[in-house]
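FW: tagging you since you asked about this chain on Friday. Here's the raw sequence from the shared folder, copied in full. Didn't touch anything.
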Amino acid sequence: MCFWSEEGFGGDYWEWTARSGYRDMPPGLHDHVGSFVASTRACFVNWQPTEKRDVFNGDWRSRYLGDFGGRIDGVGPGGC
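HL: got it, structure written out here
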């Protein structure tokens, strides 16, 4: 799964795999995911208040900051 800090798949970039287990977003992407492309099933998490979003293989968003990308704290494998 790939995450970018800017909308339109630009800016800081981070790749996460389900084998990594749960990971907090890196500092440049914490509460600031502008776009993403999912290559596996995952759960996006915001801790305060607790919110979760199911993501499926093939999901993508080119504009995510105004949505959950502005609140995301971490990502974990599998469904929420």
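FW: Strands lie at 2-6, 10-15, 23-24, 35-37, 42-46, 51-55, 60-61, 74-77.
HL: agreed, and The domain at 2-77 is CATH 2.60.20 (Gamma-B Crystallin; domain 1).
FW: great, closing this out.
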